[in-house]
Here is the input.
Amino acid sequence: MGDFSWEAVVKTYDWNVHERFNIAHECCDKWADDPNRVAIYWEDENGNKDVWTYLRLKEQSNRMANALRSLGVKRGDRVAGLLGKDMELILTVLATWKIGAIYVPMFTAFGPEALVYRLQDADCKILVTNKEQAKKLDGQHISCELLLTDGLTGNGKTFLEFIQMFSCEHETESTSIMDPSVIQYTSGSTGMPKGAVWAHKIIISTYPYLRYSMGLEDHDTFIGGADMGWAYGLMNCTFCPLTLGISIVVYKGPFQVEKYYQLLQKYKVTNFAYAPTAYRMMMVAGSDIVKKYALNVKKFSSAGEPLNAEVVRFFKENFGREIYDHYGSTETGMIVNNYNATDMK
Here is the structure.
């Protein structure tokens, strides 16, 4: 494993972190010089599929950044997202960072009260969502503008047509490592949810978690199941792995054991992270189904709720690998971890 040093870590980033730093550059644009490097294999439960290279991600998020600027979004403004695992959401987050604006994640299971509270508390300028979710805000007093991914803009264009009106050239703001990047609301276990502010530095802070706890390596293909409305799904399952230039699988659909085995086989996934509930469902589905698939998963991570020993044993027996459990919080990131990169019992 070698000796760990922060000096070595900061040298892995494209920009000199002591002068400027922007997550969008490090998890997208940095890797776009290779036109064939795949960032995201996207799929939904209806069988729709798409492949996004880092170059395509860069160009489309640049267009989205220019589109947001045309709507008046400036550095420091707040942009909220309320969608499932849609590529439009990923483009929105990258574009928000590229402007130097701050992203506010929302969860699609929230009701009107929770949404209005966050939109008002963070003083969001724009909410990117869809018609189904927007219905929750009918009759509510909110000051932000809605941009619907499945609706028409004021000039009668669809969301994607609207974005294509703008240039694919955009200069990413030279934010600093301590400039805010995300306001992620806590689950509100004591009183109202609090907006925890993450700086762009969060992806530097997360580096040891990615490399040693998840054990992500440069040639991995990764899938993480958590929703992007929450800290683990947004960062550890989506944008942080992309800073390593690897390919991730983004699946928009409910957790079904057989479907996930199919995804693991099809995309030759080598590194997998999900909440214990999913692992328990995989155990309940039994050993026979595991044998039906040619699986390449070398490392399993879990977080979000307690993981029971019985499930860990099932994975050791059927996959030859224990699940490594991790603990973190919205305010701190991942702080208590098992390490996939070591052989500790």
In short: The longest helix spans residues 54-70. The mean pLDDT is 95. The chain has 14 helices and 14 strands. The first strand starts at residue 38 and ends at 44.
